[in-house]
Amino acid sequence: MDALSLPKQDRSRATRRRLLEAAIACLAEHGWAGSTVSVVAERAGVSRGAAQHHFRTREDLFTAAVEYVAEQRSAAVRGLLPQVQLIIGPARTYLAVVQLVDLYTGPLFRAALQLWVAAANDAALRARVTELEARVGREVHRMALELLGADERRAGVRETVQGFLDMCRGLGLAHLLTDDTARRDRVVRHWTGVLSDLL
């Protein structure tokens, strides 16, 4: 079945998804300055008018794109829960640490960072990005607790998990400039030990 034979609502959803995925790729590759609605529309294979039909402004498009990929990544991590919950001890912690570090070293983080930089100089965008990041941050913290099998009612657990997630952001920043894989592997092993001892 080709795209034209799909019902109109399905075609609209497919177009929206292509635009969101193209927006994330553009942000990650070209940054905020190089990611215009026209560039995204061309990459998605749709007209600029079709893009503006789905997203009234550039800010609408890129905020929705970061949220879309965050939701997809969260769903993928949630999908790991049944597997991770079958594992006990340091092996579980290691797998959880690797998955959470991956959240901050992939294209989503790179795209989100570009949006943060743009938001630092744009008050209207800042309000939207701040709200989005607060929501994503709460979800990631909750997922981290589940993946690690951690009980944040215990003293120090909440702060340690938050410190670990802050460290993940730092690894993501370092990875933007250089291939930080070797050092990242050492840090992952270290945090696996820290979290295993605490949790």
Automatic annotation (TrEMBL):
* Keyword DNA-binding listed: yes
Asked if the keyword DNA-binding belongs to this entry, the reply reads yes
Taking every annotated instance into account, which residue ranges of this chain make up the domain HTH tetR-type?
Answer: 13-73
One Pfam entry name: TetR_N
**Family annotation (InterPro entries):** Homeodomain-like_sf (IPR009057), HTH-type_TetR-like_transc_reg (IPR050109), HTH_TetR (IPR001647)
DNA-binding region ranges:
36-55
Q: Which UniProt keywords apply?
A: DNA-binding
Name this polypeptide is given: TetR/AcrR family transcriptional regulator
Organism this protein belongs to? Streptomyces aureoversilis
Output the lineage of the source organism.
Bacteria, Bacillati, Actinomycetota, Actinomycetes, Kitasatosporales
